[in-house]
Design goal:
This protein is α+β, with helices and mostly antiparallel strands. It contains 4 helices and 4 strands. It has helices at 20-38, 78-89, 98-106, 116-126, and strands at 42-45, 54-56, 63-66, 73-76. Strand 2 (54-56) and strand 3 (63-66) form a beta hairpin. The longest helix has 19 residues, at 20-38. It is globular.
Length: 132
């Protein structure tokens, strides 16, 4: 952000019109609480699970692979839930939508532990990542 590399024109719709400084202030205000919540919920994460990174067999609709593993590592499970639900909700993917994102979360193997605030936190954090 200090180097001016955050693209404020590419913020999610809910943050459109805000500044990177505003978002950083919001992010820092919740960092300690989110770190406390994630401490017991660490898993192997892809880091950028979104529809373009998931390969699906068109005949069976089964997932056959996942690509773009540059952010692979150990993290809070919500690190993956944030981009995949955003991708499902995005207008660019009209075959899905908010209902499908909710269904995805409801079918998650740990659905009872899904935390919408942590999903929001990781979506906010993702605003600071640049495409390579």
């Amino acid at each position: 952000m200090e180097a001016g590399l955050v693209d404020e024109d590419d913020f999610d719709d809910v943050r459109r019109g805000r500044t990177a400084t505003d978002l950083l202030t919001e992010l820092l205000a919740s960092t300690d609480e989110m770190a406390r919540r994630e401490a017991g919920d660490l898993v192997v994460c892809h880091g950028d699970v979104c529809l373009p990174n998931v390969l699906v067999d068109p005949a069976t609709y089964l997932v056959t692979g996942i690509i773009d593993v540059g952010r692979l590592g150990v993290a809070d499970t919500h690190q993956d839930l944030a981009p995949v639900t955003r991708s499902l909700e995005a207008p660019i993917n009209p075959a899905f939508g908010p209902d499908r994102a909710a269904a995805f979360l409801g079918n998650h193997q740990r659905a009872d532990r899904v935390d919408p605030e942590r999903i929001g936190f990781y979506r906010l954090l993702d605003e600071f990542f640049q495409a390579a």
